[in-house]
Amino acid sequence: MAMNNQGRDSTPHAVTVDGEFVTFTGNKALQQEEALIFELDNPGAVGVDLEAPVTTKTRLGGVKTRASVGLPSLAEPDVVRHYTRLSQKNFAIDTTMYPLGSCTMKHNPRLNEKMARLPGFSDIHPLQPVETVQGALELIDQLAHWLKTLTGMPAIAMSPGAGAHGELCGLMSIHAALDARGESHRRRVLVPESAHGTNPATAAFCGFTVDTIPAEENGRVSVEAVKAKLGDDVACIMLTNPNTCGLFEPQIREIADAVHAAGGYFYCDGANYNAIVGRVRPADLGVDAMHINLHKTFSTPHGGGGPGSGPVVLSDALAPYAPLPFVVHGKNGFDLVEQAADAKGAKPFGRLKGFHGQMGMFVRALAYILSHGADGLRQVASDAVLNANYVLASLKDVMSASFDGPCMHEALFDDRFLKGTGVTPLDFAKAMIDEGYHPMTMYFPLVVHGALLIEPTETESKQTLDRFIATMRHLAEKAKAGDLAHFQASPRLTPRKRLDETQAARKPVLRWVKPAVPASAPVGVAQAAE
Amino acid sequence: MTIRFTNDHEWIKLDGDIATVGITDYAQQALGDVVFVEVPEAGRHLTKGKDAAVVESVKAASEVYAPVDGTVVEGNVALADEPSLVNTDPEGAGWFFKMKIKDMAHFEALLDEAAYKSFIAGL
Amino acid sequence: MRYLPLTETDRSAMLATIGVDSVDALFRDVPEQARLKGPIAGLSNHMGELAVERHLSRLAAKNVTASSVPFFIGGGAYKHHVPASVDQTLLRGEFLTSYTPYQPEVTQGTLQYLFEFQTQVALLTGMDVANASMYDGATGTAEAVLMAARINKRNKVILSGGLHPHYREVVETTCGVMGMDIRAQAPDWKNAEDLTALIDGETACIVVQTPSLFGHLRDFTALCDAAHAKGTLVIVVVTEVVSLGLLTPPGEMGADIVVCEGQSIGNGLNFGGPYVGLFATRDKYVRQMPGRLCGQTVDADGKRGFVLTLSTREQHIRREKATSNICTNSGLCALAFTIHLSLLGEQGLTKLARVNHANAVTLADKLEAVKGVKIVNDGFFNEFTVKLPKKAAKVLSKLAERGILAGVPVSRFYPEMDGLEDLLLVASTEVNSLEDMDALVRGLEEVL
Fold first, then answer.
1. What is the distance of C-alpha B61 from the center of its chain?
2. Structural domain containing residue C116
3. A236: in domain
4. Which domains does chain B have, with CATH numbers?
5. Are C205 and C352 in the same domain?
6. d(CA A244, nearest CA chain C) in Å
7. Is the ipTM beyond the 0.90 threshold?
8. Range of the domain at A471
9. Which helix (H) or strand (E) is C50 found in, with range?
10. β-bridge partners, B38
11. pLDDT tens digits, A251-295
12. What is the mean pLDDT of residues C237-250?
């Protein structure tokens, strides 16, 4: 055996298959293959030391106990290593630019995490006596104050658990307000075709019918198109502004006025609030209700899909219908209104969530807001819009921009620049992965063909943007040069190549099932679940 | 056997007073790999233009509308286990349901093969 | 500003590339009267880390933390010990700052833990399949009711009087707006209700809870049989998921849908959120299930991998025909749940459940020795109802003044209802020492 001067084996044992370097383990150095936790079962091991029960007496009232659960057993080091290895298979904002349009993937400050973990916030129970949680109620009140002031709106409902839940809150408020006006016949909701899918889904969920407004050639909604749909059965319009094409709706005031004149309300989808925070107050645009995704504009972590938080600001007309519970200023400090009977003249439409809202996210959002302040938040919107326009201006000669600039916080391209190359937006995105970038949003919005929606956010530096732009230009030119094979085989360097989604959907395997005989196949090799 | 088509890319084959309904080759190509099909149960009354069945690919879900008024006599249960039949044999084994037509005039008024071909040529 | 990397030099250069002379020019589509000229008035300007920490720490210090006092509050959220490695692992940036795994090649980490989570939830509840989580137990319950109505196309819902009142309210609010006929039963603190007689051919589903709000344990096997005979679905709610380490899972009783609040495993109290809803059902109902689902498949080389699947049920594709408007799960809370349950394993979970029950039994025995105090329950897991000789809310306040957080007065949930004023819900988990229990006993003896 040949040894190098540090005494380590230097003979290459690994072989190559089809020219590709293959290791004995299937691992690729830092990229570790990792079995399911159930396959790592080490019977007898335990990852938590618990003291013995203080008594063996039971008071179960005669109900039966279970024989077993079927969970695997592992010691702590193996659990920590397992999940750490899994983490290494993810792209994240911490490791790469993540220009996912309409998702606002900005830096998540760690101060926010530290603050949310203060025991004074993380170790308090929602049903403690209010005297023992005055600081928590004050924090909710302070965040509510900031959000109301930033948006110019008089009221806010804090409890919704995510953006879509906030939409539900807004539409239920509108539903309740219409009922209170004796206008329960207003059940039609106007939704532009460029809207997020949640908008029509939410409207339908509340028992409304959805009427689609076509987009104009320039990606905007026109006041004429809205007026053509108005009538005395219209409950509200749901409009995203800036819209999903990354454009500000210039006729927004006229649209709001027309909807109000027709007796309807204006629900604004606040998903893209990052573009205008601190520079434009939605109240000045005629908004009656708008949800704020704290996990977008206010940097609470996306966490691989939640938890989110979606407070909803409300106009005076809708404020009385805000759901329970809510914080009020009482005689002896802050108080929590949990029952309609205590709501003092208000008529809450009900309750949306188990307890008071996503407190952990409120702490993070307030830490973010205080860190930026009114001046910093204004700069957030300015830099977000500047970065998007810089990307648009730097790429529009090689990629096809869907609309003339300026854009707001995201730049929309479509697949015209790929015409004749055979490369699809999906192929293009997968090639970005090998270059170390998370893809942009693809095929959304639906109003342009083969959409590629880039949202850089304000937390990317010019250096990062310049590298990104250079990479996009390189890939666009490569596609135009006819290197179709490169794109279709992408990504090559990820832990898994393209996955078979058809098989996943045709024969769904949604859980692990213990094999009848111990699996002999090596880790990472496909095996039947049953 | 007479065949008719709709602008929603369904075909309807008439055999006696029973019509078999499915989606066209053009439609299955546009959808991509079909992963799930929900067909109506026998006895259900269908109204022209209203939902009759659902077809899903990985990324898209579409309603299949009733081409004419009538009553379902049979749904294609084979599609539950083998939705891929819609891709491999859309106008044969991949049929969706059979129905009894209420008014034959409505059937006659649908597109004939030439009209459908020119319709998709214009898309 | 520490989070904004652009310098003034960068900004000037970028504006030149764009071909405008100021950022204001990029906002030209905003109506003139809606453009603010400077920072919004009445709000403070940016702060350094130290100042923010100071501000928030002051607020935090005004709260009494659960760990700092003898603590017996439950009522749908439970104080448990979460191992340090749970939080330390989920704080990895690759978990914390990743997005929904729509690009599976670069999110196998998230997808694999979701697959593990789904399997764990199915095992715990005794069901076939579970989704990738809901916002919380209450919203999950409302979604379950809507799912049942989609399955049997019926409109009537019966809610047990043992169901957590907040869950009842969320169902009434969410399903009420859909026009469903919701029949909520009176609070069942005596564990006397029999719902069988209420089920008829119009009933979409019946929602029951074990342990109930009042801590009672129920076997729903007979109820499930009776419901199924009428085509009615049974939704079983579990708000204390640690109980599933000891008790017969709802799946074995015949439940059609099981919804749990998963906070107890992996997640802190956090003043009520974020929490994590567990949602499990039978194979045959998978396509009517709301929420995200992760499924196993293979990649182009035939290697096992994971993807989000059956997404055509969801809002971004079905739009107004979606099964739900939900477009997120409770990712990090689900991850915390998964890591904690992996650490516990079979042996640890069973033992944790037994320790919880043993502590509750010990506390109940001690409280029963206090004059005038009665335990209402025949059986319970780690929470039970205590009948006091005085109003529970008053007793609770006096104990709070003595630094003991003794439980939840039932009147907090039902302030307008007579006959419940003297009931107190008391929970005891593995965090309670014998000293804590004795402090509660002494406190009660003083204030009663």
1. 15
2. 84-340
3. yes
4. 2-103 (2.40.50.100)
5. no
6. 13
7. yes
8. 382-494
9. helix C49-61
10. B54
11. 999 999 999 999 999 999 999 999 999 999 999 999 999 999 999
12. 98
